Queue: 2 jobs
Job 1
Amino acid sequence: MDNNAQADERLIQYLDGELTGEELTAFEQTLANSPELQVRLENLELAKMAAMHYGLRQQVASVHHHMMDELRGKQGNQNSGRIYSLLRFTMKIAAGLIVFMFLFGAYEWVNVSSAELAQNNYQPYELSVDRGVEGSSVIEKAYANHNFKTVIAELSKSPGPGEKDRFLGGQAYLSMHEPANAIREFNEVLLDPASHYRDDAEYYLALSYLQYNEPLKAQKLIDQIYNDKDHLYHDRVSYWTVIKLKLLILKKRGE
Amino acid sequence: MKKTVLHFSDEELIDTLKDEQVSNSVISFLYRSNYAVLSNYVRQNQGSEQDAQDIFQEVIVTFIEIVKKGKFRGESSIKTFLFTLNKYAWLNELKKRNRTVLREERYGHEMEVDEKDVSHFLVERDARKLVQSLMEKLGDACRKILTAYYYDNLPMKEILALVNYENEQVLRNKKYKCLKSLEQMLNADKALAQRFKSALTYGQ
């Protein structure tokens, strides 16, 4: 081993803290008096620092991989947590709606009836009569005065009542809560396909069936009016009426 | 088994980092406490996820070395210090990529005094990267021996178990040769050697 190599070995021993006691003291004295040795020591110290720097980088890189897995997992959990919270919130609203709809449906189920549907959709037919005008029949005048008993009596007496008298008779029976007779009169009106009172008769016939507790027969007419936008009574039949009628039919089937 | 997650105050963290050995739990704590915010800064400023990770690793290494060299003055919280390091490491990287000339000019002028104090730690980041590549050139056995001995402080007996050598004396000779090789690589160019020194001592 040459002198340089020997000096390097000593320098490394010193760098590594392997010199002790007299050996250390002697070397420190030599070092203090040799700028060349000091430079060589500095160079070796730089190499040691580089190794330490590399070691730290390696350690951080190793922890980095673990931490990325951990942090990605946490982020995933946070995202799924957020999704879960949103889902839970949506489910709560949906459950609330379902409960509300169930309770509302149950309420409607209990309360829906033919009489209630007939009552809620009934508006008395208003007859416009120019008083004193020639040509108004007794039935028309009696109906205009809401004298329904007279209407019925006059209709019974009449040998061949016209479509208008029959229609007003049907209205009078409906007002007097005699749906069977009302049904008969409205059906008579509907026998004429060109009747002027066709649309009116269909609507009030449906109400008469409801009053007579025959919702299935009423449903056919109500659906027809609901689906025909040109029908005179289309606006009086709401979607809700159609639904309630279906509910009523279901209820009747279950009875 | 449930993993124990340690928490450190700034003071405890600095004391722990000054210990000879840096524990993985301290590095993990730095990740848990800072990665989200720091990586977000990089991603929001034209950086990719990979950029964010690389810069964060560099920031952690730099911070630990600054503390070990006794250069962390504690004038700001560790969080703020790391954020500033991360910010300037990334801006420096962007500048190198010539993507933000205007931003850089602005940042140079608007930098606060305490931020300048932080940014000077990053002046020789290229030299530190060069040290890393020189270590890579050194060869696997030499890297293992030198890091095990100087960074992990393992005794020769334990290092012998990591590498395939006949006995401790052979290992000792190999370590000597490895250190000399590294020293020669680092000091091949005087100007560069000065930069390496400055980079690894943070301007000491």
Note: The mean pLDDT of chain A is 87.
Job 2
Amino acid sequence: MAKKIALLQGNEACAYGALYAGCRFFAGYPITPSTEVAEVMARELPKLGGKFIQMEDEIGAMAAVIGASLTGMKTLTATSGPGFSLKQENIGYACITEVPCVIINVMRGGPSTGMPTGPSQSDVMQAKWGTHGDHPAICLVPASVQELFTETVRAFNLSEKYRTPVTVMPDEIVGHMRERIEFPEPGDLPVVNRAVPSVGPEEYLPYDTRFGDIPPLAAFGSGYRFHLTGLNKTADGFPTNKAEVVQREGERQLRKIEDNIDDIVLYEEYLLDDAEIAIVAFGSTARSARYAVNEARKAGIKAGLFRIITYWPFPDKQLAPLAARVKAIIVPEMNLGMTIHEVKRCAAGNSKVTGIFRVDGEPINPGQILDEIREAGK
Amino acid sequence: MSQRYELRFSGAGGQGLILAGIIMAEAAAIYDGKQALQSQSYGPEARGGASKSEVIISDDPIDYPKATAVDALLALTQEACDKYSGDLKEGAILLVDSDLVKKIPKGDFLLVGFPIINTAKNEVGRTIVANIVALGAMVALTGVVTKASVEKAVLSRVPEAFRELNLKALQIGFDKAMSARETSFTQMGEEFHLSR
């Protein structure tokens, strides 16, 4: 049977990806440029027996998503800049309690109300450092409508697998543009469900590391009763100040990600084999960079593109060797310099790293990148 | 056509230009089997303000999602024409509402004008379908999608009760542009006449 094809908006693709992954609960508060995610969920969830709740604000929405997830559901919220800021405290709560959930943050200009309808890529650091304390962070930055679908599915899979919140962050251009999409059939993409306890309620502990770094999570309402807190906790979920437990638990929570980098980090390399100049970009800016790379190649300049798909954890393992073999790296991004610092850290002085930064609400166009490529090629 | 073909629908917020762009992209991507990408740019206003919707059509995958050198521009307001005509390609098509756009930018392009909004109001019967009249005209002038495909795309987007109205708007826009085109000429930055 021919696959179902549609011209779909990026935000809509996010919502359909979530439904494909088995998400049956959405709580949110509408905000430009993310509202279409909520619109599709409001329309489609009731048909599937799911629940859609428009909450009083973004803080409440994040809390609802955590609560619903604890009943065993896959849950989603969607927001943009100011809303993402409001969600941060509860994202931290999801991190320390290790509750799977997915957050879509469609990036617009900021800080504060900023430029509601203008594109931006300036929330990437917030995705890792926005909530206080050491905590795991997974953040995906898709660049096409099809990829918004598949990466949202992957976000749910990673969230369920590692018992941690996962953020999907298209910029406004990717979130709002429309492209042809082929809907995957059930079974085409893997769908991962969280590990559930293999022991009975009397023996169950919510942070039982006998089962590895990612303890199984029982659903409230399934006969298992356990305690939850935002405080540092022991295996039974109750608070503790015991130094050795806090240290061990903190390290375990980071290890969930660090020991599984290869499973989480996704990227795309384009014409990098013989490249002398590499562009490191993501989202809509990577599409502009690809155009520029093709133009540069036509002019005989050996340029290539490293496209970040998993932003956190950062692709250190790929970028360090890349920096060692190219002459120069160019980092175009719709902010005033964020990714460039990560790239410089990876490059460790082995190649020149320059940036193209823009926050005027206009995309970084291929001409700008091509000019920088020519400059770097001199 | 393996090259990128870039269209821009511009005017004021609320005129339905984003929808016109979506229908054009659907005609290309769903019914003509091409690659198409639609994007938009608008201000915070729900109505008014300059608004644009861009459609890129290609046989190959489309990388940069925004227009680089525009092949065909529709301008329904003077503000939009002033703001969005700066990156027209040499020989591009410029379609304007001749009642509303009086000041035409200089350049080497094919200028076509007719009273688009008044045509919707007086000949189709509803101002609200001006975007579909304009869409029909853009299809006629660019030939970048087939008329059959755009008809299918319009039908899939509008409610049952408004199908006939929209098909009529599309046809009238198509016919008007065809006859307007015959009397227009490539303008070289000097004198020109809007064809009516």
Note: Strands of chain B lie at 5-12, 35-41, 50-58, 70-75, 88-97, 108-114, 186-188.
